[in-house]
Amino acid sequence: MICSPPKSHDCIVLSNKRLSENSIYLTRLHCPDIAQNSSSGQFVNIKVSNELSPLLRRPFSICKVDKAEGWFEVLWQIVGRGTTLMAGYKVDDVINIIGPLGHGFHIKSGIESAILVGGGLGIAPLPFLCQDILEKSSANIAVYVGVRTKADLAMAELFNDFDINIIQCTEDGSAGIQGYVTKPLIEKLASKSSVPPVLFSCGPEVFLKRMVDISSEFDVEGQISVESVMGCGFGICVGCPVEVQDYAEGERKYKLTCIDGPVFDSREVLLVG
Ligand SMILES: Cc1cc2nc3c(=O)[nH]c(=O)nc-3n(C[C@H](O)[C@H](O)[C@H](O)COP(=O)(O)OP(=O)(O)OC[C@H]3O[C@@H](n4cnc5c(N)ncnc54)[C@H](O)[C@@H]3O)c2cc1C
Ligand code: FES
Predict the structure, then answer these.
(1) Is 0.85 surpassed by the pTM of this model?
(2) CATH of 8-101, one of 2.40.50.140, 3.20.20.60, 2.60.40.1120, 2.40.30.10
């Protein structure tokens, strides 16, 4: 399916805060249209500079929204040219953004238990997901946050507004539980102490592959948000293929991350990690 170009918006920077010494930022942008029409798991495609270069927009998950105040936030880390430019954003700068884009998380009615698992910057779409689940259900929610080191746990503060259980892990053991976030998650699932949860996860491919295996091992529903290098963000350039398997028919084919995803059923996507 090819989509017609979605609307672009001139969004005003309300704040641009550095959250951690590891160059992680939280940017709040005023745009009532995006705030009111987005759902969790969707993303925006940001024209990072008003200059010609870099030409391609950069995709970022919508991290939080306030529909009443008309803003949304993106959580991101400096990794290259575009994000270095974004670090220079000042209050009242006007940034051109396309969105909301993509197919987000599916929250089924009557959901009783949700476990949200974020690996590193994969935490980005989870505060909005938390907001969404709490608005649509009375589900019990636990969030598992896995980062390299203590400084990056600043991202976990984005869940402070919610009355939920937060499990924090660092790979180097500098705070929280030492090791990969999958360790306490597996212990929780093995204890079978609660109703079967839906596992929602986002993070690097190798982590998502592990989450796919865990969903299958414990026979629980999983939804994963995958990343791919993107061009247009709305199905025109065909630059973001992901290999999937139709689990009912067993047939392999390609879908586009930007319009069919970024959120997929964990049984569907064939990850290489
Ligand atoms: C749907 C989607 C949602 C995303 N959400 C977030 C988010 O919420 N927060 C966040 O920090 N990042 C997110 N990303 C990744 C983000 O888009 C890239 O980090 C950003 O485009 C890098 O831009 P740059 O110009 O700074 O880096 P570049 O100079 O373009 O590249 C620097 C390095 O980053 C790698 N890179 C670039 N784009 C991607 C990508 N899409 N996936 C993986 N590696 C990439 C390049 O291979 C290179 O090694 C998301 C990506 C997608 C596809
Ligand atoms: S980014 Fe262009 S088709 Fe997906």
Answers:
(1) yes
(2) 2.40.30.10
265: number of Cβ within 10 Å: 15
3-state DSSP helix/strand/coil % of the chain, to nearest 5: 25, 35, 40
- 58: Cβ below 6 Å to ligand 1? yes
Q: Is the CB of 214 under 6 A from ligand 1?
A: no
Q: How far apart, in whole angstroms, are the C-alpha atoms of residue 141 and residue 239?
A: 35
Pocket of ligand 2 (CB under 6 A): 230-233, 235-240, 256, 258
- Record: fold of 113-225: Rossmann fold (3.40.50)
pLDDT tens, residue by residue, 185-226: 999 999 876 688 999 999 999 999 999 999 999 999 999 999
Is there an atom of ligand 1 within 6 Å of 228 CB?
A: yes
Looking at residue 246, its amino acid is D
Match 């999937």 to its residue by tokens. 244
